[in-house]
């Protein structure tokens, strides 16, 4: 029965490419917890990738979720988060924006009058900033490219030469026990490095990523100054954030 369900899930993902867990549960008439367990098993076999409350079919263990798909998932929520986060930025600040689709949505809400100095590791993010904010200074860090983003040792060495006023980061999962996690080791290393290179760290995360745990530990939650999300977190998370003196915006 277990393997039969997994085969059905794979067939669904072949047809739709991406589905939310809630939609799979509705189609298959299973509980969301059952679907989630099946997806975990399929991800361990490198057959699917869990992402943002759903899953994608992948061709091999090296395949990352396509950029255009990630940008469309939870778009309204990400825009809401981006608009809120933009209120944290002041004039003449140096800002690091990571390569996630969530932080990408911050870019459209920047105030052109603020005279910002912007840094990123993502080609799409840098291109958007250059096209839309000709008065801003925009720097993209180099390194090994993956999914339109630079990472690896070269990127870390360059990043370590800077101290940013604010670093805007996202992640693939946030869990009360395991904290902030990501799928790729290079993503996690970059974010851990930023612990010592940003005066303020702001975590942008939509509600689908709560209670998700991925393979690699990011920076410590205690290093985060502000969490920006799209709706009020549970009381358990609010108490966790309060205990670590983290401001929450939603």
Automatic annotation (TrEMBL):
Record keywords: DNA-binding, Transcription, Transcription regulation
Name of the protein described by the UniProt record: DeoR family transcriptional regulator
Chain ranges of the HTH deoR-type domain: 2-57
GO MF term set: DNA binding; DNA-binding transcription factor activity
Pfam families for this protein: DeoRC, HTH_DeoR
Taxonomic lineage: Bacteria, Bacillati, Bacillota, Bacilli, Lactobacillales
UniProt key word tRNA processing: no
């Amino acid at each position: 029965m277990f393997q039969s369900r997994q085969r059905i899930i794979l067939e669904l993902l072949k047809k739709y490419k991406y589905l939310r867990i809630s939609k799979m549960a509705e189609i298959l008439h299973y509980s969301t917890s059952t679907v989630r367990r099946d997806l975990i098993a399929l991800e361990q076999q490198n057959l699917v990738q869990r992402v943002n409350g759903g899953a994608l079919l992948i061709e091999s263990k090296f395949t990352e979720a396509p950029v255009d798909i990630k940008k469309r998932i939870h778009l309204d929520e990400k825009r809401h988060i981006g608009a809120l986060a933009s209120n944290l930025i002041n004039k003449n600040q140096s800002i690091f924006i990571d390569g996630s689709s969530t932080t990408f949505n911050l870019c459209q809400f920047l105030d052109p009058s603020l005279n910002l100095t912007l840094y990123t590791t993502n080609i799409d993010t840098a291109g958007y900033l250059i096209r839309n904010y000709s008065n801003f200074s925009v720097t993209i860090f180099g390194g090994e490219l993956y999914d339109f983003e630079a990472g690896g040792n070269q990127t870390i060495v360059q990043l370590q030469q800077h101290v940013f006023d604010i670093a805007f980061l996202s992640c693939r999962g946030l869990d009360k026990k395991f904290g902030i996690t990501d799928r790729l080791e290079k993503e996690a290393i970059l974010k851990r490095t930023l612990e010592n290179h940003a005066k303020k760290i702001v975590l942008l995360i939509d509600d689908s990523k709560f209670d998700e745990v991925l393979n690699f530990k990011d920076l410590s939650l205690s290093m985060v100054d502000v969490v920006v999300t799209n709706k009020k977190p549970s009381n358990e998370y609010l108490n966790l954030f309060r205990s670590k003196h983290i401001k929450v915006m939603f």
